[in-house]
Each structure stands twice: as structure tokens, then as C-alpha cells.
UniProtKB/TrEMBL annotation:
Protein name: tRNA 5-methylaminomethyl-2-thiouridine biosynthesis bifunctional protein MnmC
Family: In the C-terminal section; belongs to the DAO family. In the N-terminal section; belongs to the methyltransferase superfamily. tRNA (mnm(5)s(2)U34)-methyltransferase family.
Region called FAD-dependent cmnm(5)s(2)U34 oxidoreductase, residue ranges: 260-655
Membrane-crossing residue ranges in chain numbering: none
Catalytic activity from the UniProt record: 5-aminomethyl-2-thiouridine(34) in tRNA + S-adenosyl-L-methionine = 5-methylaminomethyl-2-thiouridine(34) in tRNA + S-adenosyl-L-homocysteine + H(+)
Stored NCBIfam families: MnmC_Cterm (TIGR03197), PRK01747.1-2 (NF002481), PRK01747.1-4 (NF002483), tRNA_MNMC2 (NF033855)
Functional summary from the UniProt entry: Catalyzes the last two steps in the biosynthesis of 5-methylaminomethyl-2-thiouridine (mnm(5)s(2)U) at the wobble position (U34) in tRNA. Catalyzes the FAD-dependent demodification of cmnm(5)s(2)U34 to nm(5)s(2)U34, followed by the transfer of a methyl group from S-adenosyl-L-methionine to nm(5)s(2)U34, to form mnm(5)s(2)U34.
Organism: Paraburkholderia ginsengiterrae
């Protein structure tokens, strides 16, 4: 279970230096924070020279603190005409500042106008203080900050990246020994790229011994300020120190991908690939984007709260926060999707659930800008009508038009996107370094080194997967015309949901019918939707009888779900090779599995496509590019499309 996130307590020494009462240590040298960052971490890692003329460069930092090292690295990157194409900065922080304290600390430390401007951009993008991985983009995505809020002892082993430089910058070993243990340096060694360098202000003997034991070579150099010496060095193991190599970019002749499916999953992949400069060919069987489940008039988005902070909750939290970032970026670039106002209410099923979830929110220490427990009276004020009971409020939840989001993502891809509609994909075939996509008539319709299958129910068939247990869930929506029910101020959900649309219509739904392929609207389905909502909102009671329900408008769509209700996101396993080597792979881990070159999946999003699609697209693109993954490795494994094959191998049922 995830530990609660405890924010940093900001204090200042008499000389004005930011100080941590918890660790009884300062955040930077009293001689100067900017100067320390430049001398110790930039010069200590040979920057900017080492990143010059490279496509990708990744810095990993232990201890984000005020973010001075990040903004100084960002400033050096901006000033370098030979800078790398993309700079990734990954940093772990157990006790992040609130945004208000971050601004105070920065104001007391940074006087340089340029650096202060970058620090202000950081503060404007500062994420909610909830555990997990937060990815922030600057410079149109060319500078990427991945913040991991959590304990380094747990977080470092969960990272999946190839580091080019390490900034070892926690509080002093005497004050914060947990950040300088051999286990920490062993975790760093697993992430080090060839020739990776490190720098730290400390030259303590236990650090030298831990570095040497884990394959790093060090040397003492002149320290900064009152420090006589500091350590710099590089990764040069004399023996094998890791089971798995860090991720590397997929070897490609051209950066071109075919994306099959143009719903929420596929369009998110299109936008993320194009943002990296990929040329994308989109194949869609319908005449336009978002025609299947993604074509509903609106969808709600919100985090998921559970008593044990389950895998589903953690993945949904990461996806929700990342989706908000991406949608805001689309709006800044003039590709705004249609969205409702901020705020969504989730109503408890009963008093016991209201109590237990409120206790979970308090136990995890979630901030009020993430979620807030509310009474029935408070819920009434927010919704604008009486509710059966209280629940919890998501200030940044709401509704969005999925088709407008898909259109915005395709528009952002610009000239890099080649759209082809009315293409029914039959199969794919690998030849050399290329995939060929054939339609159902057997004609070749596209070729590329990479294929991303994002076609929901058809994905497993197209990819030829045997171990992909997906099922279809029929969902019927009901549209209540303006004036039928009192107007809601914001979406309300629980056993069902009610969404006030921009035209005054209220959307309710949705039925949940397993393996029912009937596409026709049913009066019984409309009644079921309205009755479920009436259990939360008494004003909806008696809105329609069976005769009236038959005349209501609505829509039927089919959700694609897996047996464990988690999505399928990532590179496909080579099931044929795995079957040939099934005995050896019985004890395998996900990274042991043979993978199919250039073949990825993004499907089985169920009813959570809005909160999973952007994060899934970023994960796939990061895997292709050899970039740091945007979420923890254990969570990526829980949504890995190869997980069902892995289970079958462990059970000895693969033949």
C-alpha cells in the first residue's frame, strides 16, 4: 500500500538559506545555490559538453528539493546551440514542497531574472502532491521533467530508464543516511548507461566504498564553497552488475509508424508519436475518428479512490494527472477539445462506503485539489439539487467530448499524419525490418517499421495473440432532453452517472451487459439508466415510464475489457518464441520475455479510455524512443499486454 505523502516543511536559517527542520540540513550551500548547482552538478558531469549533438540525454537526480539543479540544467540547455534534441530530467523527492512554499524558497534564493523565469514556469506546472510519477513538459516537449514523489529506496528500483548523468544531491549522509546506502547505489548502477557520469558534493568514505562496490569509479576534485573536496566519476563496472540492460531506442531505418484505430487510444498515440517527430499513418475502418465507444457524446474523467490504493487506483491516478497536462497543452497550442466546467461529484453507494472512502482519503493525506470528502449538504450545494447521500468531490474531474479530443490530437500532429479512413485491417506481416498491413481483401495498405494496434476488440486478432483474454461489454447511454429533469451544475456519478451537456441535455448511463452484441436501443436500458441515477438524485425519480423510455434518444457502444479489467499497453511478446522456450521461461519476469520487434498495443481501455489513453501513448512512445518511462515499472508490468502469456508460462499451460 502506498505511504502517505508528507510535504516538506520550509524554514530559513538566519542568513536566509532555505532549511529543512525534518533533516536539520540546508537545501543548498549558503555560499550560493545556483553556483553550487553549476560547479558540482553541471561541471561535475561534464555538461553541457556531454549532451551536445545527441538526440536524447537523461539526468537522474536523488533529491529534487527546490529544483535549483533542474532549472540550472534547463538554463544551460537553452544556452547551448549544440544541445541535445530532448533533455530528460528525472528526480525523486520524498517530501516535495507545496507550490506556495516552493515559490517562497525560490524567491529567497534566485535573483537571476532568467533562472527566476524558469523557476516560475516550474511552479506554474507544479503537480498535485500525491504519490507516484508526474511528467511535466517544457520547451514544447524538448525538456521533460519526471518527478517521482516517494521514498528513493522504493522508487529507484521501480524506475525504467537509461541515465547519462547522476546528480547525487540528497541531504548530507549524516542527516539523511537512507539516501546514501549501498542499496541506493546498486539501484543507480542498474540504470546507468554506458559511460554514465556522476557528481556529488560529498566525499564521505562510506559513499566511496558504496560507489566502488556498485561499479562506479570516482575521483576527488575541488569542492564548492566551504567544501574542500567533492566526488565525480563514471560507471565502469569490472563485472556484470545487473540482470537487465537499461532501455535503449528501437533500432529503426525511419521513424514511421502505422497506428490501427482512430479512437481515444489510437489518436493519443498519434499525438505522442508526432510530438517526437514521427511520421504516422492512421488506419481507421470508419469514415472519421471516434466512431465506436470513443464516439459517445461525452465521457467523464476522474481519479479512482480505493481503500488500499490498488494498482488500478495508482495507474488511474497517473493517467488522470497526465491527461490533464496533455489537454492543457492542446489548448495552449490552439487545439482545444470540448470540455465542461471543472468539478465532478462521486456519490457513495451507501453510508459505509462514504465512511470508509473518507477514511482512506484522510489516511493517504490526499490534498484538497485532488479529492475532498463531502457531506450530503455540501454535495447538494455543488450539484444544485438534493442528493441521496454524500461522497467525494474531484475539483479537476469533469466531462469531455471524446470525438473533439481525438480531433484535437490529430490536428496537433499536423503534416506528420497521413489519415486513411474506410480501411478494414485483416492482418499484419513482418518482413525484414518492416511490417506490412493488409486489409480484409488481402491488399497491402501500409508499410512501416512500427505498428501500434489500437483497435479495441479487433486488436488481439490483428496482432495474432493467443493470450489476450478480452471481452465485450455493451453499454447503452440515455439522453434526457432539456427541461426533462432539473439542471445539474456538474457531473454526478456513483452506481450510474448524470452529465449536464452544453446544450442542456443530460446524459445518463450506462448499462453493463457482458457479451451482448445487440446494437439497437432498448426501452429497458433507458429505464435502467434513469432508475440508477434516481438512486443518487431523487429529482430523477419517475422521469420516464416504459412507454416514454421507448422514445428517448441514446447510443449503444461496446467497451473492450480484459479479464483483470486493466488495459493492454506496451510492446507485444513473441508468443511463438515464448512457446518454444516455455520450460526455461516458467520462472520468467516480464523483461525476460521475447518481444516482437516494432509491434505494440494500446487497447482494452474499458470505460477509462479518457484517463488511460494519454499515459498509455506516452509509455509506448517512451519505449520506442528509449526514454524514461512515465510510470513505475511494476505498474507498467500490470498493464503489459504480455502479462497473460507470462501467467500461462508460470502455470505451465503454454504449449
Amino acid at each position: 500500500m502506498t505511504d502517505p505523502l508528507i510535504p516538506a516543511a520550509l524554514a530559513f536559517r538566519d542568513n536566509g538559506t532555505p532549511f529543512s527542520p525534518l533533516y536539520d540540513d540546508i537545501y543548498h550551500s549558503a555560499v550560493g545555490g545556483l553556483e553550487q548547482a553549476h560547479h558540482v552538478f553541471l561541471l561535475g558531469n561534464g555538461l553541457p559538453g556531454r549532451w551536445q549533438n545527441r538526440r536524447l540525454f537523461t539526468v537522474l537526480e536523488t533529491g529534487f528539493g527546490m529544483g535549483i539543479n533542474f532549472v540550472m540544467t534547463w538554463a544551460a540547455w537553452r544556452a547551448d546551440p549544440s544541445r541535445c534534441e530532448r533533455l530528460h530530467f528525472v528526480s525523486i523527492e520524498k517530501h516535495p514542497f507545496t507550490v506556495a512554499d516552493l515559490r517562497k524558497a525560490v524567491a529567497a534564493t534566485i535573483s537571476d531574472p532568467e533562472i527566476a523565469g524558469l523557476a516560475e514556469s516550474l511552479a506554474n506546472a507544479w503537480p498535485m502532491l500525491v504519490p507516484g510519477t508526474h511528467r511535466l513538459e517544457f520547451e514544447n516537449g524538448r525538456v521533460v521533467l519526471t518527478l517521482v514523489f516517494g521514498d528513493a529506496q522504493d522508487s529507484l528500483p521501480a524506475l525504467r530508464l537509461r541515465a547519462d548523468a547522476f546528480y547525487l544531491d540528497g541531504f548530507a549522509p549524516a542527516k539523511n543516511p537512507e539516501l546514501w546506502t549501498p542499496a541506493i547505489f546498486k539501484a543507480l548502477a542498474r540504470l546507468a548507461g554506458e559511460g554514465a557520469t556522476f557528481a556529488t558534493y560529498s566525499s564521505a568514505g562510506e559513499i566511496k566504498r558504496a560507489l566502488t562496490q556498485c561499479g562506479f569509479e570516482y575521483r576527488k576534485v575541488e569542492g564548492f564553497g566551504w567544501k574542500r573536496a567533492m566526488l565525480v566519476g563514471h560507471f565502469a563496472p569490472r563485472w556484470r552488475v545487473r540482470r537487465y540492460e537499461p532501455p535503449a531506442p528501437l533500432a529503426l531505418e525511419e521513424r514511421h509508424a502505422v497506428v490501427i484505430g482512430a479512437g481515444l487510444a489510437g489518436c493519443a498515440v498519434i499525438e505522442r508519436l508526432a510530438a517526437r517527430g514521427w511520421r504516422v499513418t492512421s488506419l481507421e475502418r470508419h469514415a472519421s475518428v471516434a466512431q465506436d465507444a470513443s464516439g459517445n457524446p461525452a465521457g467523464v474523467f476522474h481519479p479512482m479512490i480505493s481503500r488500499d490504493d490498488s494498482v488500478a487506483s495508482r495507474v488511474t491516478r497517473a493517467g488522470f494527472l497526465y491527461a490533464l497536462q496533455r489537454w492543457a497543452a492542446l489548448e495552449r497550442f490552439g487545439h482545444a477539445p470540448l470540455r465542461g466546467g471543472q468539478g465532478l461529484l462521486q456519490i457513495a453507494a451507501d453510508d459505509e462506503e462514504a465512511r470508509s472512502i473518507s477514511e482512506a482519503i484522510a489516511a493517504f493525506g490526499y490534498p484538497s485539489d485532488y479529492v475532498t470528502p463531502i457531506s450530503s449538504n455540501e454535495a447538494r450545494q455543488l450539484a444544485g439539487m438534493p442528493l441521496a447521500r454524500g461522497g467525494w468531490f474531484f475539483p479537476h474531474g469533469g466531462w469531455i467530448d471524446p470525438a473533439s479530443l481525438c480531433a484535437a490530437q490529430c490536428a496537433a500532429a499536423g503534416d506528420l499524419l497521413d489519415r486513411r479512413f474506410g480501411v478494414e485491417v485483416g492482418r499484419i506481416e513482418r518482413s525484414g525490418a518492416q511490417w506490412t498491413v493488409f486489409d480484409t481483401a488481402g491488399a497491402a495498405v501500409a508499410r512501416a517499421p512500427v505498428v501500434v494496434v489500437a483497435s479495441a476488440h479487433d486488436a488481439a486478432r490483428i496482432a495474432g495473440l493467443q493470450h489476450a483474454p478480452t471481452r465485450s461489454i455493451r453499454g447503452q447511454l440515455t439522453l434526457l432532453p432539456s427541461g426533462t429533469v432539473p439542471p445539474l451544475k456538474m457531473p454526478v456519478m456513483g452506481e450510474g452517472y448524470a452529465v449536464p451537456l452544453a446544450d442542456g441535455t443530460t446524459l445518463t448511463g450506462a448499462t453493463y451487459e457482458l457479451d451482448d452484441l445487440d446494437t439497437s436501443l432498448r426501452a429497458a436500458g433507458h429505464l435502467e439508466n434513469v432508475e440508477r441515477v434516481a438512486q443518487m438524485l431523487p429529482a430523477f425519480a419517475g422521469v420516464a415510464d416504459h412507454a416514454q423510455a421507448a422514445d428517448l434518444a441514446g447510443r449503444v457502444a461496446f467497451r473492450c475489457v480484459t479479464s483483470d479489467r486493466m488495459p493492454m499497453i506496451g510492446q507485444f511478446a513473441d508468443e511463438t518464441l515464448a512457446a518454444r522456450d516455455a520450460q526455461r521461461l516458467r520462472g520468467a519476469w516480464p523483461l525476460d520475455l521475447p518481444r516482437t520487434d516494432g509491434l505494440f498495443g494500446a487497447f482494452a481501455y474499458g470505460s477509462r479510455g479518457l484517463v488511460w489513453a494519454a499515459l498509455g501513448a506516452e509509455l509506448i512512445t517512451s519505449q520506442l524512443e528509449g526514454e524514461p518511462w512515465p510510470l513505475e515499472r511494476d505498474l507498467a508490468e500490470d498493464i503489459d499486454p504480455a502479462r497473460f502469456l507470462l501467467r500461462a508460462l508460470r502455470q505451465g499451460t503454454v504449449r
